[in-house]
Every structure is written in C-alpha cells, then in structure tokens.
Amino acid sequence: MSDFLIYLRLGFDHITDPSGYDHILFVIALCAVYQLQQWRQVLILVTAFTIGHSITLALATLRLIHYSTDLIELLIPITILITAFSNFFFREKVSRSAGVINSQRWRYGLALAFGLIHGMGFSNYLRSLLGREADILSPLLAFNVGLELGQLLIVSFVLLLSYLIVNTLRVPQLRWVLAVSGIVAGMAISLLLENEYLATLHF
Fold it and tell me: What is the pTM of this model?
C-alpha cells in the first residue's frame, strides 16, 4: 500500500473513530436540521467546514501557526455545544416550488469559522504521525482527503436516518432536530466537564 493510501486511511479512521467522537458530534449537529432532499445545501455547508479545517490543518501541520493544544481541545466541544444549541431555534419554511427549505444561511459562516478550530485539532494527530518525516505535503493531502471521505460518510448516515425517521416513520422534523441536538448538546457538556484545561481555569 502506498504512503498516500496509508495516510488517507488514517484520516478516514481518525474522524470516524468512535473513541474520538468529538468531531463526529460536530458533523451530526451541523447537518441535523437538513433533510435528504436538501443535499445541495448540506454540500455547501460541508464545503464551508472543509475549507475552514483545511486551512488550519495545513498551516498547523507546516508549523506556520502556533497555538495551545489544551485550548483547542477546550474549544472543540464548545463549537459542538454552540452548533447544537443553535438547532433549538430551527424553524422550517415551506415553498411550493422547493418544498421544505432551510433559510439559515449564517450556518455556512459558522461552519467555516468552526472548521478553523477543528483543523487545528486534526493537526495535533497528524503531526504526531509525521514525526520527523521530510515530505509532509503528500501525507497532508492524503490525510485531508481521508477526513473528507469519513465526513461524507457521517453526513450520509445522518441524512438517511433523518429520511427514515421523518419521512417513513412520520416523526415531525422539529421533534427529530430537537432530539438529536439535545443528545449532542448533552454529550458536548459532558466533554466540557471532563476537560482538564477547563478545570485549571479560575473564574
């Protein structure tokens, strides 16, 4: 297996790893308000998140930016909590021509901004893999592609599950959104309470 495929697999496994579920929670919260027929909006949303985390993943891996790892580990669950909390204000609009639509375009900016934070989180793992390896551009690209494939898998699963719950089982979409977002918010709060950096802060 080539080095490219190895790092691609490592990126895919990293974002889909259940033991490191913080990134999974964020992606779930990000697309929880969408339905399968809104896949174009979800694609734009995911692209915004991708642009954000690709920028800081590259800059941090190339050591062009420096930051506190502990602070990033604290900020990631905060991004999850904010995204999940914003879902509680979800309201669907109905258009005769387009069906149910989501007009919360500010979510694209939110995904981009929070993607910057998650990219630094991804880079911690990638840099530990690279060690003193001279050529890091190819592994960086492969790892990022792997992340995207894993991310698309998570999004596809959420949209398909949403379709099953809302369209097949006839559960109101608002109830689905509130239930998923509530679970994600609760898990994000749990991550925050377990964060060692937060415990050292004095307010």
Answer: 0.89
